[in-house]
Design a protein that fits this description.
Layout lengths: L6 E3 L2 E2 H4 L3 E7 L6 E7 L5 E8 L2 E9 L4 H14 L5 E5 L4 E12 L7 E8 L4 E3 L2 E11 L14 E6 L6 E5 L4 E4 L9 E4 L4 E4 L2 E2 L20 E14 L2 E2 L1
Organism: Ligilactobacillus ruminis ATCC 25644
Protein name: Putative phage tail component domain protein
InterPro entries: Dit_BPSPP_N (IPR006520), Siphovirus-type_tail_C (IPR054738), Siphovirus-type_tail_N (IPR008841)
C-alpha cells in the first residue's frame, strides 16, 4: 500500500516508480527563515535595513527493501537517476500544494538489504503553490475572495475577457493600484487572453503584445484575497490563479 506521504519528484511518484520504496516522513514544509540585513549602531543593537525569506530544505526519510544485492543496486541506481533532475516540481500525497526544488543530498543509513535513508531537497523558491483555481462570471467587476486569505500575493496565471459589445480599448484595473491596458479595438465575442506566466496577450488567438501599454503592470499584477478587478466593459471573464503560501 502506498505511503500516506508518498513523495513525487520531477513528475514521478517515487513510491510507485521504485518497488518497495516507502516514504516514512517529511519535515521542513512548514519552516521558514529570514535573513536580516542590518548595520550596528554606536548604541545597543542595530538598525534594520532590509530582509528576505531564504531558501529552505525539506528532509524526506524513506525505507527501501531489496531481495538481493543485485536488486538493491538496481533500485538505488534507479532512485539516483530519478532524483538527478534539477529545479523541478516536488509534491507529497498528503499535501495539495506543490514545491520547486533540487535534491542536494541522498544518504543511506546502513548497507543492509533493507536500508533506511534520507533525501534532502533545497527549495530555492521557499513558497508552495496550489493547483490552478478558476473564477468565472459575467459583468464589469469581480472580487477574488476565493483566493485563500492565508495566501501571499501572487501573479494570476491568466485573465480572460470576452466583451459583450465592441470596444476601442481594453483595460482591467485592481483596487490595489495595478492596471493593464490594451490599446486596440476588440469586436464583441472576441476573447482577450492575458497570460501572466508567459507575458503574452492575444485576441481571438492572435498575438497583440505590441498593443499593450508599456505602463501596464504586466510583470507585477499581483492578486490576493482582498483584490477586486474592474473591467472597462461588460462581458464574460475567467480568472485563473494559484494560491501562494509559505
Amino acid at each position: 500500500m502506498r505511503s500516506q506521504v508518498a513523495f513525487s519528484y520531477g513528475g514521478q511518484c517515487i513510491d510507485t516508480a521504485i518497488a518497495d520504496f516507502d516514504t516514512l516522513a517529511v519535515s521542513g514544509r512548514g519552516n521558514f527563515t529570514t535573513a536580516v540585513n542590518s548595520t550596528d549602531l554606536a548604541s545597543d543593537g542595530a538598525k534594520y535595513l532590509s530582509s528576505r525569506i531564504e531558501s529552505k530544505k525539506l528532509t524526506v526519510n524513506f525505507f527501501l527493501q531489496a531481495s538481493s544485492l543485485s536488486d538493491l543496486s538496481d533500485k538505488t541506481g534507479k532512485l539516483k537517476k530519478l532524483l538527478s533532475v534539477k529545479n523541478t516540481e516536488v509534491s507529497f500525497a498528503d499535501d495539495g500544494y506543490r514545491y520547486t526544488g533540487t535534491v542536494t543530498s541522498l544518504t543511506f543509513d546502513d548497507t543492509t538489504l533493507h536500508p533506511t535513508g534520507t533525501i534532502e531537497i533545497t527549495l530555492s523558491d521557499p513558497y508552495c503553490y496550489s493547483a490552478e483555481k478558476t473564477i468565472t462570471g459575467t459583468g464589469t467587476s469581480v472580487s477574488l475572495s476565493e483566493y485563500d486569505d492565508t495566501g501571499f500575493a501572487n501573479l494570476p496565471a491568466a485573465i480572460e475577457f470576452t466583451p459583450a459589445e465592441g470596444i476601442s480599448t481594453f483595460q482591467v484595473t485592481s483596487n490595489q493600484g495595478k492596471h493593464f491596458l490594451l490599446n486596440q479595438s476588440v469586436s464583441a465575442g472576441k476573447k482577450i487572453v492575458i497570460d501572466f506566466k508567459s507575458l503574452t496577450c492575444t485576441v481571438n488567438g492572435a498575438t497583440v503584445l505590441s498593443s499593450v501599454s508599456l505602463n501596464s503592470n504586466f510583470a507585477d499584477f499581483r492578486i490576493d484575497h482582498n483584490t477586486k478587478l474592474t473591467f472597462n466593459a461588460n462581458g464574460n471573464y475567467v480568472i485563473r490563479f494559484e494560491v501562494k503560501k509559505l
